[in-house]
Specification:
elongated; 68% helix; mainly alpha; 7 helices
Length: 152
């Protein structure tokens, strides 16, 4: 019997997932925790700039590739006006929000905490809440379009 017919329980899933996760954690470089995290992660930041705030982190994320992709997806959705564009924008902003939330909450390598202690990375909370709000707005717009004009 396969996992579908035999019933994939949470215990079996955890048992099968434990070894690959342990291998991935061992494969992560230990040098990520070394001194000078900010020189490798954010070379444009200097201690003279002061510690990064949550709002500064929001603007920094908005200028990275995922942030520019979200801005582009929302621009396309607002200018195009098709429901599928809003669905794509909601999906993309939700994925980035979950990724940032996971990185700040779990932090398996300790890289985020080391960078926050040096001051080059700020709190992700305002960024995550902004992305969640954008995701909910886009999802609500998508559903509103679908209920207002159901597909033929």
């Amino acid at each position: 019997m396969g996992p579908v017919r035999g019933g994939l329980t949470l215990t079996r899933f955890r048992r099968h997932l434990r070894l690959p996760l342990a291998g991935l954690l061992l494969a992560l470089p230990v040098t990520a925790r070394a001194d000078g995290v900010c020189e490798t992660e954010r070379p444009e930041w200097s201690p003279a700039d002061g510690p990064m705030t949550g709002l500064g982190e929001l603007f920094h994320i908005a200028t990275t590739l995922p942030g520019l992709g979200i801005i582009g997806a929302f621009t396309l959705a607002l200018l195009g006006g098709r429901p599928i564009y809003f669905a794509v924008a909601a999906l993309f902003s939700g994925i980035v929000a979950l990724g940032l939330w996971y990185e700040s909450l779990i932090d398996p390598t300790g890289l985020h905490e080391a960078a926050r202690s040096e001051g080059c990375v700020g709190d992700y909370t305002p960024t995550v809440w902004t992305l969640v709000a954008l995701c909910l707005i886009a999802l609500g717009t998508f559903l509103w379009f679908r209920l207002r004009h159901p597909p033929a």
